[in-house]
């Protein structure tokens, strides 16, 4: 599994294999393109799957994960591609992508060595089951491949996001100390997945504020980041390590 700090956005990348249908291609060279706005880590892009039977489509299926108030959430699907092999000049790897039979790319994706490509939907899709199919064009001499796929489910929320200065400060703290917790997305909302070791105040019609952070036993070292001073609503900061207890009370 790869995540922060390998992934700057702490996306959680989990290997996905289907040995009966897919085979793996990999490279040891770095696979990172300056054009890739998604900044997928090289370690993730360095492997890809392709159908075992080269004349078959590459099929990927999954069931949506129901949410408490949303049994059938919408999904954004972001697929990442890169050619990992140096191909003979006559070889072509070109394919279309469809989700539950609906074409996503009108122009066939053609992969080049060292290049990266991204295909995604622009509006969330809602289905009981998702079937992605990648099929080679008639011109293609090689089967489709895929290196990585991001799945985002849409969570409706009617409450306000965390105070933006609190967000910037906690993101700076997370970066400074390489905090390895569930610190991604908004710190205080949704309440059920608020950042671990953090307490927020929730007042109706006001943005949530961070009032306490517990970074005890988190392997911190170095000086205390000045970003803590930007948490204007912070009341408690716990930074205990073995033996010593330090509690800062504002
Ligand atoms: C997805 O694929 C499965 C297996 O091929 C098939 O039974 C199912 O009907 C497909 N579902 C959709 C929504 O296309
Ligand atoms: C396939 O090749 C033909 C002839 O070179 C070309 O006209 C056509 O546009 C190609 N099709 C695709 C999908 O690239
Ligand atoms: C802070 O977290 C540590 C480690 O999980 C825990 O032992 C400690 O009780 C927490 N302190 C407070 C004040 O919540």
TrEMBL record:
List cellular component terms (GO): membrane
Q: How does it sit in the membrane?
A: Single-pass membrane protein
The protein's superkingdom reads Eukaryota
Query: Any idea where the Malectin-like domain is?
Result: 2-154
Which locations, inside or outside the cell, does it occupy?
Membrane
Primary localisation category? membrane
Name the UniProt record assigns to this protein: Malectin-like domain-containing protein
């Amino acid at each position: 599994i790869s995540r922060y700090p390998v992934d700057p956005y702490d996306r959680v990348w989990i290997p996905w294999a289907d040995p009966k249908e897919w085979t793996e291609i990999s490279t040891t060279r770095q696979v990172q393109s300056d054009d890739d706005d998604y900044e997928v880590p090289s370690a993730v892009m360095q492997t890809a799957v392709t159908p075992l039977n080269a004349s078959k489509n590459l099929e990927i299926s999954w069931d949506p994960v129901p949410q408490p108030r949303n049994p059938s959430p919408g999904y954004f699907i972001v697929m990442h591609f890169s050619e990992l092999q140096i191909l003979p000049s006559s070889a072509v790897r070109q394919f279309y992508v469809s989700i539950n039979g609906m074409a996503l790319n009108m122009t066939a994706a053609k992969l080049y060595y060292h290049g990266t490509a991204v295909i995604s939907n622009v509006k969330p899709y809602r289905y009981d089951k998702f079937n992605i199919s990648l099929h080679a064009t008639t011109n293609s001499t090689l089967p489709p491949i895929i290196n990585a796929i991001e799945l985002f489910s849409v969570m409706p929320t009617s409450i306000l996001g965390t105070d933006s200065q609190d967000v910037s400060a906690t993101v700076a703290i997370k970066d400074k100390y390489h905090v390895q917790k569930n610190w991604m997305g908004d710190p205080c909302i949704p309440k059920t997945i608020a950042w671990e070791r953090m307490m927020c105040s929730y007042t109706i019609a006001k943005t949530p504020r961070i009032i306490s952070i517990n970074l005890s036993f988190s392997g911190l070292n170095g000086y205390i980041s000045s970003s803590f001073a930007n948490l204007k609503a912070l009341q408690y900061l716990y930074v205990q390590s073995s033996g010593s207890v330090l509690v800062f009370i504002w």
